[in-house]
Amino acid sequence: MPVVDAAWQEWLRTNAARGCTMESMIEAMVQAGFASDAAGEAVRGAFGATALDALPLAASAGGVQAALPQELQGSQNAQAAYEYDPGPVARGNTIRAFDRDVQVLMRCERPQVIVFGNVLSPDECAEMIERSRHRLKRSTIVDPATGREDVIRNRTSEGIWYQRGEDALIERLDQRIASLMNWPLENGEGLQILHYGPSGEYRPHFDYFPPDQPGSAVHTARGGQRVATLVVYLNDVPEGGETIFPEAGLSVAAQQGGAVYFRYMNGRRQLDPLTLHGGAPVLSGDKWIMTKWVRERPYV
Fold it and tell me: What's the gap between Cα 172 and its chain centre?
């Protein structure tokens, strides 16, 4: 069950200030999964009301009707059958991505997955590994109920984040990836480098923030929902370490300089459940990847 975290408290304050009725606010919270008594208590607290009979009084006043936070409104669309529309990535077997020609090795329509070759040169891959090696920290995931980042057993990797455009190399890679994904540079999160040792894995998950979980609002407040992902492989993995899409029966092997792109939000803001994906266990050697997530709006 959701909890009244910081995002929900802000929602309560905002809607109370707008003059929304208590009844409509309680209804919106129940729609998001709150128990009716918990929703009522939270709403009355936002108004500073303690009497139960304040509810019908406020409701009869005909005030503004409250709605779910914008980023949670997509939950109903997400539950409908996902409709595939044309993705933003350019057509053709070779794409000019800012300063580099990138080869298209495979396209899948459902889910929308593209496998690329030659996204980074061997020298660029080696440099990204070496500059990251001594700065790694245990990777986290976003707790959908609270929005906090936690360490879990399902993700056994180490990682580091780079600020967007923080130096010449990062800026060049950011521009190349934005061109390849055909998405605004300012909508991209910073590049993340991840390292998986022997047996390291990331069990199947979604990259988008669950719209029915209030903790997601903490993250979607900065740029909206995630739209698509690009995973770049920085080294060859002798065995294992594939990017797997279990619902689609698809597996992409880690080859240095190559990448896999997948898009999970369409123009209607629906989210594609077929993009459930994971990193298979590394059976031999280790695995280094670089990940770029892009948002609906500028990520600040």
Answer: 23
